[in-house]
Amino acid sequence: MASPGPSTAASATVRFATEADVPTILALIHELAAYENASSSVLATESSLLNTLSFPSFSTSSSAPKPGYARTLLIFPATSADTSETENECAGLALYFHNYSTWRAAPGIYLEDLFVRPKFRGRGYGKRLLGELALETKRVGGERLEWSVLKWNEPSLKFYESLGARRMEGWVGMRVDDLKGTGEGEQGGEEGGELEKLGRWGKGVDWR
């Protein structure tokens, strides 16, 4: 009889990340950035992730997540006979937050990062994470799950299209970064970042 192969998506464990998983989340962020040739762009630290991510609350008085701006799903393989795999090693993540569609008057989910470590690819883990996000979207009454893909990443584009996702060819992404320069001639310069400049047009609105 053949020895058991690597665990498949169906037998893998998917759970929400907790505060104790922050070092793993940061490591995966760096690995994703390296894959996208953008390692120098990562400014996240364990401290900033702890302060801005939402984590499950295990308090007996409430099951609501602790406040934060995004949530993280982690996927772990089932026990495998493959000696190259470390026990309880995280295989990948899906980091997301909620958004809103005015035309549909319905919430949705925006997938910020989906990453599966190279040695765990080909097992359906990416599809499993997207499946869990689709269920989470329906759970909150949402009607849309969306994300962005780098144009050069054809393998990912084809993978997502095989699952029924479609390219939003008519849209162009826009962004204002708060990049502060440290000297004359650098982006932002002495006048501060782009968000700060744009903010001069506002007066501030209280949430009542």
Describe this structure in a few short sentences.
The chain is of the alpha+beta class and 208 residues long. The protein is 25% helix and 16% strand.
Structure explained in plain terms:
This protein is an alpha+beta fold and 208 residues long. Strand 3 and strand 4 (106-116) form a beta hairpin. The chain has a 5-stranded mixed beta sheet. The protein has helices spanning 22-35, 46-52, 125-139, 154-162, 194-199, and strands spanning 13-16, 71-76, 92-101, 106-116, 145-147.
Q: What is the H/E string?
A: EHHEEEHEHH
Radius of gyration, CA atoms, in whole angstroms: 20 Å
- Beta content comes to 15-25%
Q: How far apart are the first and last residues' alpha carbons, in Å?
A: 67 Å
Q: How many distinct helices?
A: 5
Q: State the share of residues found in helices, binned by percent.
A: 10-25%
Give average pLDDT, whole number. Answer: 86
Query: What oligomeric state best describes the polypeptide chains here?
Result: single chain
Main sheet?
5 strands, mixed
Class based on secondary structure composition and strand pairing: alpha+beta
Side by side, the strands of the main sheet go 1-2-3-4-5
Molecular shape: globular
Low-confidence stretches: 1-5, 182-190
| Number of E-type strands | 5
List keywords for this structure.
208 residues; alpha+beta; 25% helix; globular
